[in-house]
UniProtKB/TrEMBL annotation:
<keyword id="KW-0503">Monooxygenase</keyword>
<dbReference type="GO" id="GO:0016705">
    <property type="term" value="F:oxidoreductase activity, acting on paired donors, with incorporation or reduction of molecular oxygen"/>
</dbReference>
<dbReference type="InterPro" id="IPR001128">
    <property type="entry name" value="Cyt_P450"/>
</dbReference>
<dbReference type="GO" id="GO:0020037">
    <property type="term" value="F:heme binding"/>
</dbReference>
<keyword id="KW-0560">Oxidoreductase</keyword>
<dbReference type="InterPro" id="IPR017972">
    <property type="entry name" value="Cyt_P450_CS"/>
</dbReference>
<dbReference type="Pfam" id="PF00067">
    <property type="entry name" value="p450"/>
</dbReference>
<keyword id="KW-0349">Heme</keyword>
<dbReference type="GO" id="GO:0004497">
    <property type="term" value="F:monooxygenase activity"/>
</dbReference>
<comment type="similarity">
    <text>Belongs to the cytochrome P450 family.</text>
</comment>
<keyword id="KW-0479">Metal-binding</keyword>
<dbReference type="GO" id="GO:0005506">
    <property type="term" value="F:iron ion binding"/>
</dbReference>
<keyword id="KW-0408">Iron</keyword>
<dbReference type="InterPro" id="IPR002397">
    <property type="entry name" value="Cyt_P450_B"/>
</dbReference>
<protein>
    <submittedName>
        <fullName>Cytochrome P450</fullName>
    </submittedName>
</protein>
<dbReference type="InterPro" id="IPR036396">
    <property type="entry name" value="Cyt_P450_sf"/>
</dbReference>
Length: 409
């Protein structure tokens, strides 16, 4: 409507950062389409919204709060994960032990073995899809372990995750896409219902069993809530790390000197990951709902207004990240908002960082150069998540052919 930017337009989805730069210049809170929602573009206001659950509720992701175009494409809309405090905190506690530092430390050797296997499979191939060969199978296997799923089905898990996240970028009138989406939901329901039925009969040490045993406010989760929770954990666990690793590969293709620096000094890998998270976050934005009339940065927002916090834009706010459109390995600055902020800070952030660190340690120890093998990338058409659909690359081993694993602690 008017000159409002449509966040589902191909123009925006293929090149969001140029548009976000212009929106930041316009102001910290700008009205956009679809639906006339309000986009938060700058760092301070983004932090303010994310930490103020009483004013900006996470129930913006619940079906009853959404416009018709979004209600039909959100399988997580009624997930208990989108409760506000204090119920939200009690629910997070149900699965928090799986993401505790001690639990994650026990996973590191297993993750390293998977990463080593998949980087070896990429060598000496002229054209390999980085997504399918490396970025996807590592987190998909790990989420299989944690949730109690068959990790060998990682390609199916990735297809489900892609289908679900891309539906937020599909118009409801696209009947073909809607049919594929509902087919995916039916497949997921059959599979996860089988997992739940199995764990009811024979509990294991996994999240599916933990959720079946759990109670919130004295009541067990309903079957619908269990399914919604498992869907969300799988999709969130995949999308964050898959797209983080994809973005790392794109940075290597654009800045080959950085790959060489990480080979020489793997201790720089955590810093490289943090700058990648700032530069191209896997989760572009998150939704909130105004619980009352509120003024944000001088803009009057009515009760019930949908607010979209652009994490990607906040992470390039020039006030806090000078020259924010450049990738700077030595960059300092405040906490990046890539995993959110406040009570809904991503509980899987430590796991995603661990997966990325171990995967990159194995990758840079065996690869000296990565080259992109396409002039055009297709991106996911999603409102909240962004990543390449495929990433054709060629990787080159050092002339010696020997990994530099001795440098990795």
């Amino acid at each position: 409507m008017g000159n409002r930017l449509d966040l589902l337009s191909r123009e925006y989805l293929e090149s969001p950062h140029a548009h976000l730069t212009e929106l930041r210049r316009r102001g910290p809170v700008v009205q956009v389409d679809p639906g006339g929602m309000w986009l938060v573009t700058r760092y301070e206001e983004a932090q303010q919204v994310l930490k103020s659950a009483s004013l900006f509720s996470s129930q913006g992701l619940r079906a009853s709060a959404q416009p018709a175009w979004l209600q039909r494409v959100n399988p997580f809309a009624d997930s208990l994960l989108f409760l506000d405090p204090p119920q939200h905190g009690r629910l997070r506690a149900l699965v928090s032990r799986a993401f505790a530092p001690a639990a994650l430390a026990r996973l590191e050797a297993r993750i390293r073995g998977v990463a080593r296997e998949h980087v070896a499979g990429m060598m000496n191939q002229k054209n390999v899809d980085f997504v399918d060969a490396f970025a996807m199978p590592i987190p998909a296997t790990v989420m299989g372990w944690l949730l109690g799923l068959d990790a060998s089905l990682h390609q199916r898990f990735n297809r489900w995750a892609n289908d679900l996240v891309t539906m937020s970028g599909v118009r409801p009138e696209d009947t073909g896409a809607m049919a594929r989406y509902h087919q995916t939901l039916e497949e997921m329901e059959r599979y996860f219902q089988g997992v739940l039925d199995d764990r009811r009969d024979a509990p294991r040490d996994d999240m599916a069993s933990d959720l079946l045993r759990a109670q919130v406010e004295g009541e067990a989760l309903t079957n619908h809530e269990l399914l919604s929770f498992l869907y969300l954990l799988l999709v969130a666990g995949l999308e964050t790390t898959v797209n983080l690793l994809n973005q790392c590969a794109l940075v290597f293709s654009q800045h080959p000197e950085l790959l060489l620096r990480l080979r020489e000094d793997p201790a720089l890998i955590p810093r490289f990951i943090e700058e990648t998270l700032r530069y191209e976050p896997s989760v572009m934005a998150t939704l909130r709902l105004c619980t009352q009339d509120v003024t944000l940065a001088g803009v009057e927002l009515p009760r019930g207004a949908l607010v979209l916090v652009s994490l990607a834009s906040a992470n390039r706010d020039e006030k806090y990240f000078p020259d924010g459109d450049r990738f700077i390995l030595e960059r300092e600055g405040p906490q990046r908002l890539s995993f959110g902020h406040g009570p809904h800070f991503c509980m899987g952030a430590m796991l995603s960082r661990l997966e990325a660190r171990v995967a990159l340690e194995e990758f840079v120890s065996r690869v000296e150069r990565l080259e992109l093998r396409t002039d055009h990338l297709d991106w996911t058409t999603a409102l909240l998540v962004r990543g390449p659909v495929t990433l054709p690359v060629e990787v080159f081993a050092p002339e010696s052919g020997q990994p530099v694993t001795a440098r990795i602690a």
